[in-house]
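Q: What does the predicted 3D structure of Tyrosine-protein kinase CpsD look like?
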Amino acid sequence: MGLFRRNKKLSTDTSANGVKLITAMKPKDVISEQFRTIRTNIDFSSVDRQLKTILFTSSDVSEGKSTISANTAVTWAQQGKKVLFVDADLRRPTLHTTFGLNNTQGLSTILTQNLDFHDHVYDSGVENLSIITSGPVPPNPAELLNSNRMKALVTQMQEEYDLVVLDVPPLLSVTDTQVLASSADGVILVVRQGAAQQAAVKRSVELLEMVHANLLGYVLNDVAPKNGYGYGYGYGYGYE
């Protein structure tokens, strides 16, 4: 039986610059409803294929993929699914900060030391949602994420959870994400309005297509609707 750790508190930063866990802290907020809409659209985007592993990525850094993946993972857990959220961004991890967790061990140590992942699963503080943090930044993140050990680990996670959500590195920054994306049931591309370059988004889509990844759609982040900060979900890019 693995050690199941409980964190002490959740982040309460719900500012416009970083809506951290608003779905957990303010589930009735209009932004929380937008995340539930994203969840529903993802669920319906692959009706003929069961989604067991979903990757959230972006073209470049600072587009909000970690905030969006965290809040969407919370909404799946609130729906009653047993969810494991994994910080697989081994270069710029943020999950431990968002959930107020210790990051001395995590995915990197599980892979490098061939540890039982159950011993490094944290209770998120949200019912049905468990967490594996990144662990210390390793010298060889690409090799770890693309290893047979990582593939076997994800397979084991799929057998024990209804849904495994992975926050992975940006596509254009490193090579880590493509191999993971090719074996995932679905990929969501986060695009920050006003920040992402059209050419970069188009290239990201091409990279996913090259490995035959199942691109479910994109989340348009930092939209400015009439009522303030928001998100939009869609498919298709309009960058021809």
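A (community wiki): The structure tokens above were generated from the sequence. The first strand starts at residue 4 and ends at 6. The longest helix spans residues 30-45.
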